[in-house]
Design goal:
Elements: H1 8-17, E1 52-57, E2 67-69, E3 72-78, E4 83-90, E5 96-104, E6 120-121, E7 125-129, E8 134-139, E9 144-149, H2 150-154, E10 168-170, E11 173-178, E12 186-190, E13 197-202, E14 219-221, E15 228-233, E16 236-241, E17 247-252, E18 269-271, E19 274-278, E20 285-289, E21 298-303, E22 314-316, E23 319-324, E24 329-333, E25 340-345, E26 357-359, E27 362-366, E28 371-376, E29 382-387, E30 398-400, E31 403-407, E32 411-415
Length: 418
């Protein structure tokens, strides 16, 4: 059954445009693009000593999350020779099925490299994207379909800590956002089968300096049955017609003081007709009433009691879960009012950068140092805590085919209930 907090029209659009099954995790934020999947029988601990199915070392440390469909796990990485690699593993055994080089990394810094974007799949094909601008499509068997470089086509990415937005597969199109400090921020729609640009929509803003930049991923919503793509960055949240790219509505004002360093990292969360948006750097969390146009879209509530600079909130059972990464705290809120239902602290020795994942009445999350937590979803209770190591751990946890897939800085694990 569909998750009750997921708009029916959104689920219908995803089903019509993709042959993935309910047990798959085809994109960075899962099958419903909200961090939740309708799964059961999952483990309540992520412990290599008790319920590990397999683990596989990976070359290089990147922030990209795994995606899973059709019995295959797709991961992107950068090896020690700076090769941008697309890797496919068997989800039952972890056995490598194929590996392709897409390009070469040419930049990195102490916070990021060009391996942050996560791949996306529809079960038949898979698309890999890197911070270098390299975008390539393969079929599930590893046959190359097409490739291109977004920077070569539309100009250099001007982002202080390197490009990190993942592509979105939705409404029969592949969406790529480039919200940067250059003069030409835009949303791009690409034909996923040919790689050709369908349209390029300018995305203006009046932000200054680094606040013009966004590391967030485009997220779909569907108010009144009309598909839209929602972006955050440049001191604004905007919704765009999924068919044409035309801007439908815009919400601003959360950076009233025009802080020059308010770059956006956390993507928005659609839930129960609302868009939850996290202003950066201890800015407020906003509840935006979604609607077909600017006149109907409005900020329904705003709170600075909870903030999330990096982690994207999770939607589950008509609740939104906000992970305050710097404060190591998880807060459950009512998405229609912003009021807290419960909160609790996570005893890790490091911050959280990966976003929380929800399934089977549980919440899975992992700290930067590799402390993996499993929590109850209806009240604050830590069901288990396991140290996996492998720092830095920035990839969000994926759930598919009855298994929980955890990527640390140096390997990927598959756990299942035994």
């Amino acid at each position: 059954m569909p998750h009750p907090g997921t708009p029916r029209a959104l689920l219908l659009a995803l089903i019509l445009c993709s042959p993935v099954f309910a047990g798959d995790w085809p994109q960075w934020r899962g099958p419903n693009l909200n961090g939740f999947t309708d799964a059961a029988g999952l483990p309540d601990k992520l412990d290599p000593a008790t319920n590990l199915v397999w683990s596989m070392p990976l070359p290089g440390q990147v922030s990209a999350s795994p995606v899973v469909a059709g019995g295959k796990v797709f991961v992107s990485t950068i090896d020690d020779n700076q090769k941008l690699l697309a890797i496919c593993l068997d989800d039952q055994t972890g056995k490598p099925l194929w590996q392709k080089q897409i390009g070469s990394a040419f930049d990195s810094n102490e916070r990021n490299n060009q391996g942050s974007p996560s791949p996306v799949t529809d079960g038949k094909n898979v698309w890999f994207y890197f911070g270098s601008g390299d975008l390539a499509a393969f079929d599930a068997a590893g046959k190359p379909l097409w490739s291109r470089n977004i920077q070569k086509d539309y100009g250099e990415f001007q982002i202080k800590w390197l490009y990190a937005s993942s592509p979105l597969l939705f409404d029969g199109k592949l969406y790529v956002q480039v919200l940067h400090s250059g003069d030409d921020s835009y949303l791009l729609a690409i034909d996923p089968l040919t790689g050709k640009t369908l349209w390029k929509q300018a995305r203006t803003n009046d932000a200054i300096a680094e606040s013009r930049e966004s590391y967030a991923t485009p997220i779909p919503a569907s108010p009144n049955g009309k598909p839209e793509v929602v972006l955050i960055g440049g001191d604004a949240v905007t919704a765009h017609d999924a068919e044409t790219g035309r801007e439908l509505w815009r919400v601003t004002g959360y950076n009233a003081r025009k802080n020059a360093q308010w770059r956006s990292i956390a993507s928005v969360l659609p839930i129960d007709g609302m868009i939850i948006a996290c202003a950066p750097q201890r800015g407020p969390v906003l509840g935006i009433q979604d609607g077909p146009d600017t006149a109907s879209a409005r900020v329904a509530w705003s709170t600075q009691q909870i903030t999330s600079d990096v982690c994207v909130p999770l939607a589950m059972d008509h609740s939104a879960y906000v992970l305050l990464g710097e404060r190591r705290k998880l807060v459950c809120i009512d998405p229609t009012t912003g009021k807290q239902k419960w909160s609790g602290s996570l005893p890790s020795d490091s911050v959280f950068r990966a976003s929380p994942t929800g399934a089977d009445g549980k919440i899975y999350c992992i700290s930067e140092s590799g402390d993996a937590f499993v929590l109850a979803a209806d009240h604050f209770q830590i069901l288990s805590q396991t140290s996996l190591g492998g720092s830095p751990c920035h990839a969000s946890i994926a759930v598919a085919d009855g298994r929980v897939f955890v990527r640390t800085g140096d390997k990927i694990y598959a756990f299942a209930r035994k």
